Amino acid sequence: MIFSLIILLLVLLIFVGRLNSKKIILTLLYNAMILFSAVILMALRVNPLLVSYTAFICISLLTLFYQNGVNLKTVSAFLSLLIVVFLLAFLTWYLCVYAGICGLNTQTAQEDEILVLDFHLHINMIQVTYGMTLIGILGSVKDSAIAVATGTCEVYRNRPGITGKELFFSGRKIGKDILGVTINTLLFAGIGESILMFQMYFQYHYSFAELINSKSLIQAIVLILLGGIGVELSIPITAAIFCYFCTDRFSPLRQKVSMFRNRRQHLS
Amino acid sequence: MKTKLNIQNKFAIPYSPRIVLPVLAVLLLLLNIMVYHDCSLYPNTIVRVSSVKTVQSGYATGDLGISEPQYLQTLTCAVQNGTYKNRSMLLTNTYTYTHMENTEYHEGDFLFLKNTKIAPDGSISGSITDQKRDYYLSGLLSLLFFGAIAAAGKRGFSFMAALLINAFTVAIGFFFHFQGVNFILITFFFILLFSFLSLVLCLGWNRQMRIVLLATLVCISILAVAYCLVMFLTPRLDYTLQDYIRNGNIQLEMFFTCGTLIGSLGAIMDVAVSITSGVEEILQQDPDISSEELSRSVRQIGHDVMGTMINVLFYTYMVGRIPVCIAQLANGMAITIFFTYYLNYEILRFLAGAVGIALCIPVSEKIAHDFYRRKDLLP
Question: Which of A32, A212, A225 sits opposite B134 (nearest CB)?
Answer without folding.
Answer: A212
